[in-house]
Design brief:
By secondary structure, this protein is mainly alpha-helical. The protein has a single domain, classed as MFS general substrate transporter like domains (Growth Hormone, Chain: A). It is about 75% helix and about 0% strand. It has 19 helices and no strands. The chain starts with 16 loop residues before the first helix and ends in a 13-residue tail after the last helix.
């Protein structure tokens, strides 16, 4: 429980320069994590058209949509493997060396995408990029939680995850800038390598990790067999599955809703493509970023579970409103930030909550298992989303609303998870 002197004191009061450095480095790594995932979503039509030899002015054939979904599933699978693998290694090797390895991993394989000429090369590289992306999140989330004091932890975790919107903006702007010359967007993946210099020079291992016994660190077997942690791990994984599944089925659909609105307003498919990207990548993501940042203050006031409940309920309400209320594209544009706030904002809770569920020697392992295991299970939702939206006569708006019912499942899962507000991290 917070001490009396902390009450009414700004959360950032007393945060040291080193703690700010940790947050900055972790956030910068996460920005490029998100960039690597979003840049494919934004450029995949041009990428696949070139590799499949489809003219740019021809209607999008089924193969482009099919391989786009396949490679998205490959990315989610790679993220799941990377999160669990590097989570365990971060608990065994330490936070600093593991973060360096994950950043180099996703940077190098992103740059190699520039040289791809065949579908199999795209698939392999997307998998390997995702391995690094999934691993970096697990390490960075654990590091931020361990370095910041209890009264600042929720705010710092929200800022860390909230910087993901910068990655989405960067991807949207890069995709818009390169246009059909999609290969250049992947060369930006080289920039995160510069972060490794800062990681190596500036970061230290947390004292709590250094004090643990080496033999007990990073055991997935212990995580899944010890009754103290097994239930938390499984329920956390299911909670992340709801959030990540609705991200791909509901949140990302903001771009499709914008495109559909433009078409209803009389725009051609070609003319609707770029404004729809910006509507999702910039306008909606701005609201999503505010939602991510708002999780910390809400979690500090209502508790971690209470904040999650607010977001899940808000998402249930805003999705049908966004789908059916706007009569024009510009009316939709006004609602997309609110749509992003509710459907994306809850993701900051994973960076705050999951590290608080597990002891130091299993913190990165447990966090990576929950968040990135959720990535893998969300493939099921991705397949369901694709099937539902492709049904003959299925209106996109109805499909998105049906998928948003998964937020009800999230509310049910939360009923069985513990509250961690005001409690010290498990030793």
């Amino acid at each position: 429980m917070a001490t009396v002197p902390d009450q009414g004191t700004p959360w950032y009061r007393g945060v040291t320069a080193y703690q700010w450095l940790v947050l900055a480095v972790a956030s910068a790594g996460w920005v490029f994590d998100v960039y690597e995932g979003q840049i494919f979503n934004i450029t995949r039509d041009q990428l696949l058209r070139e590799i499949l030899h489809v003219p740019s002015d021809a209607p999008s054939p089924p193969d482009v949509r099919f391989y786009g979904d396949v490679f998205l599933g490959v990315f989610l699978a790679g993220g799941a493997l990377g999160g669990v693998l590097f989570g365990m290694l971060a608990d065994r090797w330490g936070r600093r060396p593991t973060m360096i390895v994950t950043i180099v991993c996703y940077s190098v394989f992103s740059v190699l995408t520039y040289f791809t000429t065949d579908l199999w090369q795209v698939g392999v590289l997307r998998f390997l990029v995702a391995v690094g992306v999934g691993g970096e999140w697990a390490v960075a989330a654990a590091l931020v939680a361990e370095v910041f004091p209890p009264r600042s932890r929720a705010y710092a975790g929200s800022i860390f995850h909230g910087t993901s919107v910068l990655g989405t903006w960067l991807a949207a702007l890069a995709g818009y800038a390169v246009g059909s010359q999609w290969r250049y967007a992947y060369l930006l993946g080289l920039l995160p390598v510069l972060l490794t210099v800062g990681v190596r020079a500036g970061l230290q291992e947390p004292e709590s990790w250094a004090a643990t016994t080496a033999a007990a660190r990073g055991s997935l077997v212990e995580l899944l067999t010890d009754p103290r942690w097994r239930g938390r791990a499984v329920l956390g994984l299911l909670l992340a599955t709801v959030g990540l599944g609705t991200f791909w089925g509901v949140t990302v659909a903001g771009q499709d809703l914008a495109r559909a609105a433009l078409l209803r307003d009389g725009a051609s498919p070609e003319a609707a493509a770029e404004p729809a990207k910006l509507a999702y990548g910039i306008v909606q993501s701005a609201g999503g970023g505010l939602g991510l940042l708002a999780y910390g203050p809400l979690a500090q006031r209502l508790g971690r579970r209470g904040a999650f409940v607010v977001y899940h309920v808000a998402a249930l309400l805003i999705v049908p409103v966004t789908c059916y209320l706007p009569a024009t594209y510009y009316q939709l544009l006004c609602l997309l930030p609110v749509f992003g706030f509710a459907t994306l904002g809850l993701h900051a809770g994973y960076a705050v909550y999951f590290p608080e569920l597990f002891p130091t020697h299993l913190r990165a392992t447990g966090s990576g298992f929950c968040f990135n295991g959720g990535r893998l299970l969300s493939v099921v939702v991705l397949v369901l989303s694709g099937w539902l939206k492709s049904l003959p006569g299925m209106d996109l708006r109805l499909a998105v609303c049906l998928l948003s019912l998964l937020f009800l499942v999230g509310l049910l899962i939360l009923a069985f998870l513990p509250e961690t507000k005001g409690q010290p991290l498990p030793a």
